[in-house]
Amino acid sequence: MKKRYYIFCDESIKKGKFYSNFYGGVLIDSKDHKLISDVLEEKRLNILKTSELKWQKVTKLNHKQYIDAIDTFFDFIQAGKIKVRIMFTNNRFIKPDLKEEHLENEYLLLYYQFLKHSFGLRFLNPNDENNLEIFLDKIPDTRENCKKFKKYLLGLQNLPDFIDANIKISEQQISEVDSKSHILMQYLDVVLGSISAKLNKTFLEKSIETGKRGNRSIAKEKVYNHINKRIRLIYPNFNIGITTGKQSNFKNIYHMPYRHWIFIGKIVW
């Protein structure tokens, strides 16, 4: 049987006070994409009445509507229709010795590791022909580096684990897109932004003039708290700052609907 999966990707802050290099992804079966997208679009239009959901657009005036919309997104996650993965690094960990090339290309190298490992794609059913289509948010790099990056992503299908899982990727199935055209990327942006804000304690920042937290920070914290509540409905006592456990089964890297991964290691192609 031929199956097709869509992976939508987003990134958040490159350098945070405590945690950095935030990457997020959504995995969905192509057959579920239209129905789920239509439902999420309806929330955007009728509840939030905005052209695009973004973490940076959360305010005191709309945070309740964002919570309502995010609930629908997490309903699909909890039902196993959407898989979400978030990866980041901890600034406390010293990076391994890296060549100048690795330092220059750290953003794309980490992106590659995220797509290669975070979804546990090697555990897809090998009896199916598993076709992947990857949608990347616009990459802030040179055309040459982006072309090289896509070449390496295309080469994933030639790795032993991916061959064993019968994974197929074509050049036409790797594309850079505008998140305004893909509602799943917009919801992912809100979740990813909330996690990076919590880990970097931006909710606690106070105005120099008033000595108090701003209304927007308070509103964003409320949205984060609700997201954390929804995650904990799936996994009680979920710790957002560490790699999510596998529950004694490596295949859960794929099967679990929501996971975090704190990247520690050598970043190479």
Features:
single chain; 269 residues
Task: Please describe what this structure looks like.
The protein has 269 residues and is an alpha/beta fold. It has a single domain, classed as Ribonuclease H-like superfamily/Ribonuclease H (Nucleotidyltransferase, domain 5). It has helices spanning 30-48, 63-78, 100-104, 106-117, 143-154, 160-164, 183-199, 215-234, 252-255; strands at 2-11, 19-29, 83-90, 129-137, 167-168, 174-177, 258-262. Strands 1, 2, 3, 4, 5, 6 and 7 form a 7-stranded mixed sheet that branches. Helix 1 (30-48) packs antiparallel against helix 2 and helix 2 (63-78) packs parallel to helix 8 (215-234). The longest helix is centred in the last third of the chain and has 20 residues, at 215-234. The mean pLDDT is 92.
Number of domains: 1
- Considering the protein shown, what is the CATH homologous superfamily? Ribonuclease H-like superfamily/Ribonuclease H
The CATH topology label is Nucleotidyltransferase, domain 5
Q: Report the end-to-end length measured between terminal Cα atoms.
A: 31 Å
Low-confidence stretches: none
Count every helix, treating DSSP H or I runs of 4 or more residues as helices. 9
Given helix and strand content, the structural type is alpha/beta
Radius of gyration: 18 Å
Helix content: 40-55%
Shape type: globular
Order of helices and strands: EEHHEHHEHHEEHHHE
Report mean pLDDT, rounded to a whole number: 92
Sheet having the most strands:
7 strands, mixed
Supply the CATH architecture.
2-Layer Sandwich
* Number of DSSP E strands: 7
Please indicate the percent range of residues in DSSP E strands (runs of 2 or more): 15-25%
- Class, according to the CATH hierarchy? Alpha Beta
